[in-house]
Write a structure and sequence with these properties.
Elements: E1 2-6, H1 22-25, E2 28-32, E3 42-51, H2 54-60, E4 70-71, E5 76-83, E6 95-98, H3 108-111, H4 119-127, E7 146-147, E8 157-161, E9 165-168, H5 174-177, H6 180-195, E10 202-206, H7 210-221, E11 226-230, H8 237-243, E12 247-249, H9 254-262, E13 266-271, H10 276-285, E14 286-294, H11 309-314, E15 317-320, H12 328-340, E16 350-355, H13 359-367, E17 373-377
Parallel strand pairs: 4-7, 10-11, 10-13, 11-12, 13-14, 14-15, 16-17
Antiparallel strand pairs: 1-2, 1-4, 3-5, 3-8, 3-17, 5-6, 6-9
Helix pairs in contact: 6-7, 6-12
Length: 378
């Protein structure tokens, strides 16, 4: 099998004093590895397309600490090619979307109907193992390679837990399905599941990557009267309009646009940047009783300092949303139904497709804001 492996982190090229691009430093090594077979409770999946996300970039630059070496990638689509013992509801040939939280079904979060917060999944995702056993991948010299979020999608094949896949219909194009396991699930879930946006409300989305644009689409689907999309990269503004935004601007425009659309603030602000400063700004931009949904992943050292009186004094809420508080087996089919009905233009997120050999060049393009979702084929 072929996989892209990270052996050591490389700071972002934009950091002070650094001149090498990722294309030059090549932190991800695409190499041939021995192909493992699925164990009890696992599946072997032939990956057709994987998708590059900022969460992958955060592992490469070291801002999301993960055990190395690690085979990266956490968003993909493929076909089941082998089935381990104990799996009876998935068959060889099934079309599957891979998801990055393989919920155990038994912890307090899963029993409470919040599988995105599965305790066991958090443990194994952090250690680089799989839900049903230790890491399977090995270097050519025989050393351990950790799995990325139970998926390791930058590859032509992956062994994953049964709980890491959602079976979908055969008619869904792989270039569409590839973006449902993270971007669509997270952005739409933030609006539908975490915020519970309803008709007539006002929503502002800060950050127009694939997650933020998915949140824009969801807000329009939910019937929001105003959807204000904010990003410093003006190259993404037309995409936001196409996704359903009623107003688009840079961070400098945010206060004016929100004032024009919603008076003293929006009902819901979605932060999809991964910045503590933007979270604080969002709290200022919501009305009394409004909610800020934090979707982005700030650096672990980032701290949030805001006036405490905003909460009890103005009834504002700050809500964390991991994987959009999704129940993947429920939400992915529902969102695909919206796509079939022409209500969810997910194709807007797909910038282009490249061979896996160009994965490091993809890191540069993503870091520079030149792509939304670049897909890869091994």
């Amino acid at each position: 099998m072929k996989a892209a492996v990270l052996y050591s982190t490389v700071p972002a090229p934009a950091a002070a004093g650094l001149k090498q691009s990722y294309a030059e430093s090549r932190p991800l090594l695409v190499q041939e590895l021995d192909q493992p077979e699925p164990r009890t409770g696992e599946l072997g999946v032939s990956i057709t397309y994987s998708s590059l996300c900022h969460s992958d970039l955060s592992v490469v630059d070291g801002s999301r600490v993960r055990p190395l070496p690690m085979a990266l990638g956490h968003e993909a689509v493929g076909r089941v090619v082998s089935v381990g013992d104990g799996v009876s509801d998935v068959s060889v040939g099934d079309h599957v979307v891979l998801v990055f939280v393989p919920s155990c079904g038994q912890c307090r979060a899963c029993l409470a109907g919040r599988p995105a917060l599965c305790h066991r999944a958090a443990e194994v995702n952090g250690s680089g193992d799989l839900l049903h056993g230790p890491a399977l991948l090995r270097t050519p010299e025989g050393g351990r390679i950790n799995h990325h979020l139970g998926v390791s999608a930058f590859a032509d094949y992956a062994v994953v837990a049964r709980e890491s896949v959602v079976v979908i219909d055969d008619d869904v194009p792989d270039t569409v399905a590839a973006m449902f396991g993270c971007a669509v699930l997270t952005g739409m879930g933030a609006v539908f599941n975490t915020a519970g946006v309803g008709p007539g409300q006002s929503v502002a989305v800060f950050g127009l990557g694939a997650v933020g644009l998915s949140a824009v689409m969801a807000a329009r689907l939910a019937g929001a009267a105003s959807v204000i999309a904010i990003d410093p990269n003006q190259g993404k503004h037309q995409l936001a309009r196409d996704a359903g935004a009623t107003a688009v601007g840079t961070p400098e425009d945010a206060g004016r646009l929100i004032g024009e659309a919603a008076g003293d603030g929006v009902d819901v602000a979605v932060e999809a940047v991964g910045s503590a400063a933007v979270i604080a700004s969002c709290l200022e931009q919501v009305t009394r009783g409004g909610a800020v949904v934090s979707v982005g992943l700030p650096h672990p050292s980032a701290e949030l300092t805001v006036p405490a009186l905003q909460f009890a004094g103005a009834g504002k809420r700050l809500l964390g949303s991991y994987m959009g508080d999704a129940v993947p087996a429920r939400d992915i089919p529902k969102y695909l139904a919206y796509w079939r009905e022409g209500k969810l233009p997910v194709e807007l997120l797909h910038t282009d497709t490249r061979p896996l050999s160009e994965i490091n060049e993809g890191l540069d393009a993503l870091a520079a804001g030149q792509v939304v979702r670049r897909l890869f084929q091994a």
